[in-house]
Amino acid sequence: xxxxxxxxxxxxxxxxxxxxxxxxxxxxxxxxxxxxxxxxxxxxxxxxxxxxxxxxxxxxxxxxxxxxxxxxxxxxxxxxxxxxxxxxxxxxxxxxxxxxxxxxxxxxxxxxxxxxxxx
Length: 119
Prior knowledge:
Helices cover 0% and strands 59% of the residues. The chain has no helices and eleven strands. Strand 4 (31-39) and strand 5 form a beta hairpin. It is elongated. The termini are far apart.
């Protein structure tokens, strides 16, 4: 079993920055995609950014140019640098990872960390 633990959330003013980190533990397989999703009150969970083991990244249009995802394959960690934060970025941010074992895909989620952007 793989556990994901996020850290780095908090309260920040509009225009500010935060850095989220996600560390893995347990029976870490060869993780494929790692990334971040978020869920605001009353809304569905949405993709923020992902990165493959090969370093290919994908960003939601709403965060392009402001957020940067990075990954350390040796440590199985993933970070999200968030700059120029806006009130609409307020949400619970979840770390995500998946792994393939043969034809079976395993998906893992962290418990979430709150990000609040407000003056």
